[in-house]
Amino acid sequence: MKKTLLASLGLTLLLSTSAGAAFAEDADSVPVAKESNLTSLLEYHEQEPNDSFEQANYYFIGDAVIGRLGTEGVPGVWENYDVFRIKAFESNNIQFTVQGDRYSDSWMELTLYDSNGQKIKRSRNGQYFLNADLEKGKDYYLTVTALGLQPGGHIFDYRISSEVVR
């Protein structure tokens, strides 16, 4: 009886895995419009520490990450900077968006760097989005920074998302 039950569970698992792979192949062959408003594939929370390029969290285009700035991490050190590492699997123009609070004396900024840490582009004048061309096979770093943040001041709960725009 146990062998029959285990065999049928194994067969069920094998069939569901095969069906999932077949559906994934079909999904890959479906054309996607150049301007897409698809929702994130996955939403997850940042993992501290991610305050340097060496400690960067991985981020995948199309996903969303939730984070927080303005809290005390290490005693006496205020978190005002998070770093995410991106691998471009395709060459595309990507729009990164950060959702979160804005204050008259403090706001968030997005900055994109190449794999060598050279600044490529940053959001301007309190804009909470950044468009950039990413090249297939290259690594990038995206930072979110709370400008004007003072110890014990504002706390920024944020959500970064991205989408392909062409």
Q: Roughly what fraction of the amino acids lie in strands?
A: 35-45%
Name the strands of the widest sheet in spatial order.
1-3-10-5-8
Backbone shape: globular
Largest sheet: 5 strands, mixed
Keywords, separated by commas or semicolons:
single chain, 166 residues, alpha+beta, 5-stranded mixed β-sheet, 10 strands
What is the strand and helix layout of this fold?
Elements: H1 2-29, E1 43-45, E2 57-59, E3 64-69, E4 81-87, E5 92-99, E6 107-114, E7 119-122, E8 129-134, E9 139-147, E10 156-164
Parallel strand pairs: 1-3, 2-4
Antiparallel strand pairs: 3-10, 4-9, 5-8, 5-10, 6-7, 6-9
Q: How would you describe this protein?
A:
This protein is of the alpha+beta class. Helix content is 17%, strand content 38%. The protein has one helix spanning 2-29, and strands at residues 43-45, 57-59, 64-69, 81-87, 92-99, 107-114, 119-122, 129-134, 139-147, 156-164. The strands form two sheets. Strands 1-3-10-5-8 form a five-stranded mixed β-sheet, with no helix packed on it. Strands 2-4-9-6-7 form a five-stranded mixed β-sheet, with no helix packed on it. β6 (107-114) and β7 form a beta hairpin. The radius of gyration is 20 Å and the shape is globular. The termini are far apart. Residues 1-39 have low confidence and may be disordered.
